[in-house]
Predict the structure.
Amino acid sequence: MSYLCRSSLNICSLIRRFFLILLVMLGTTLSPDRSQALEQHIEIVTLNQWPQYVNGTNILALPQVTRMLRLFEETDLVSILILHPNTDTGLTWARSLVNWLVSFGIPNSHLKTTPGIDNINQLTVTITDHG
């Protein structure tokens, strides 16, 4: 085979390129497209679950927050909408959650808050594809 490759370098070079392209194509086909994995995910954070003493450890102890962070890590093309009660307290609570999510690495451009919940004791977080 080495004699064949030496005598016809162009053919061997073409064969190597073909197999390299084939491997790249197979790798692309077999690897999951993480940006397409998420359609919509909803998390509910209740006032009873929100820690009285708010710090990073207590916020990360909320399973809803860890799921949000995991979803963001799995697909970087997410948009997070936080629906809050239409009160000053609800807005403050939603902004606090946004600030914590930003401090944990989610860009502020991926986060939005809006009033829209009648229940004054909860935040509804909707995570969807960013596109």
Observations:
- Residues 64 and 75 are 17 Å apart (CA to CA).
